[in-house]
Amino acid sequence: MTADPADDIAAALARLRGPRQRPPWDGGRWGPHGAAGGGHGGRGPFPPHGGPPPWAGAPGRFAGPARLRLLEALVAASHPLSVSEAAEAIGVDQPRASRLVQQAVELGLARREPDPDDARRTRVAPTDAGTALVRGFRGERRDAVRQALEGFSDAERAELARLLAKLAAAWPRA
To answer: Cβ contacts of residue 109 below 8 Å, gap of 6+?
Structure first.
């Protein structure tokens, strides 16, 4: 626990959010028939043109929950992560994590480094810009929590922080 219950509550909420489960219709390519050509035919919840789903964000923008979770995982890690470690940390498969890492590198928010233990592999670390983006987002989250807590007493804030941290620690991980 930190001195500020708002920080603890924001951290617990982020842990509860945790890795996302894949939607049941997601066969790994934005739908059971793949969004990138080949048989989409307008079936399913995605546009018939076969582009990315609407929540993926516009090209060239760092938008989308998975990309933000990737950056948060990189910033929180005590060392640069392999793509497999990043995939596990954010709850996506390795090919998806590889694409997210590539996007983050292209946007200058992450960098690849050689793995000191295996020259065939690379590890991924946030750049200063990536770290600043995550810190800004965390600050906004903390500010929102602080605003929501304005009607709480100090004791209620501390108790909520304690209970949310306990819930987050006990939350089942997939």
So the answer is: 62, 71, 126, 127, 129, 130, 133
